Amino acid sequence: MKKNAWLYRLDPIAVKISDFFGLKLSPGKPLDLRNIINHPLDAFYQAGRHSVLINIPIEKIRTLGANAFPCHAGTYHPYIRTLQEWEAGKITSAKGSSLQRFYKNWQPKNAAQFLGLDETTCHKILRESPPSAAVLPWDFRSMQRQKEDIQHGIINDYLPHATKTIVKDFNWQFWGPKNPLDLEVELSRLTKLIISIKKNGYQRTHRLDGDISGTFLCSSKDWIFYHAGSGQHRIAALSTLGWTSIPVRLFQSPPYLVIREHANHWHHVRSGLFSLKEALAVFDRVMAGEQLYIPNYNS
User: Residues with Cβ < 8 Å from 72, sequence gap 6 or more?
Assistant: First the structure.
């Protein structure tokens, strides 16, 4: 108790010192509100400057970028479908898997296609930029920064596992094509993870990438958790293992909270990159978990 009291008193002092030097101080340990708070908006108003750990129902989670796949058992999510096939003994390699079909069929040519926008009416820049430059209407980053961040993510997350073509072609996990070796690497990452969770349980930590992280999207009628950080493979493994809710870390990286009714204020709406109608269409589709393209997994 005394230790916690002293830490509480030191917290505002540390913040003042960091402000003096122009630094942002962010605590590494999230505020644990699991089994206490169920709605992310309640967590937002209790968080203060902390990130927050809460349990999110699996049906409220959207992953794999703008495709916004739901993560329940009946989803078309290629990671989850592939793990289900592997668990059932239907596949032993990526050949013939849902993963292979997804990357074969989902190959957007530009940012507009990746976001599901009408190429005849959307902004010229979205038609002429690659998928790696695609930003969401509420994102604060520029398209160039988005492209650089994806390249950085590929180099740090994928290059240790995959071939150099994945960097050359900006072959991010959200779209194809992928060569056979990279597909096998992706499958191996998924299967090793599910084996580890079965053996050791799900092990989260307070490290920066120690939790599944993302953004909270909210309207007056509903809310979802949009995965926009670490944990894509973890979500797939936990869903495959039958988890009905998953611990996630909110408010770790901006934007922390996206409210539909604030669409006029979203950065890329104000900049003119998206019309208000286009921005709301993207938001509503992500909220509903409607995919841009559903591969024929039976072909």
Answer: 58, 59, 239
> Around Cβ 140, how many Cβ atoms within 10 Å?
11
Residue 249 parent element (H or E): strand 245-250
Q: What is the Cα 257 distance to its own chain's centre?
A: 14
Residue span of the structural domain in which 213 resides: 30-288
CA 276, CA 297: separation in Å to the nearest integer?
Answer: 35
Domain count, the chain: 1
Is the Cβ–Cβ distance between 190 and 233 less than 8 Å? Answer: yes
Residue 75 lies in a domain: yes
Strand partners, 248: 54, 212
Count of positions (residues) in the chain: 299
φ and ψ at residue 224, rounded to 5 degrees: -145, 165
pTM of the model: 0.86
- Residues 46 and 33 sit within 8 Å (Cβ to Cβ): yes
Does residue 16 fall inside a structural domain?
no
Q: Tell whether 5 is covered by a domain.
A: no
pLDDT in tens, the chain (299 residues): 334 344 444 555 555 565 565 655 555 689 999 989 989 999 999 888 789 999 999 999 999 999 999 999 889 999 999 999 999 999 999 999 999 999 999 999 999 999 999 999 999 999 999 999 999 999 999 999 999 888 877 776 655 555 555 445 456 789 998 888 889 989 999 999 999 999 999 999 888 788 999 999 999 999 999 998 889 999 999 999 999 999 999 988 888 899 999 999 999 999 999 999 999 999 999 999 998 877 665 55
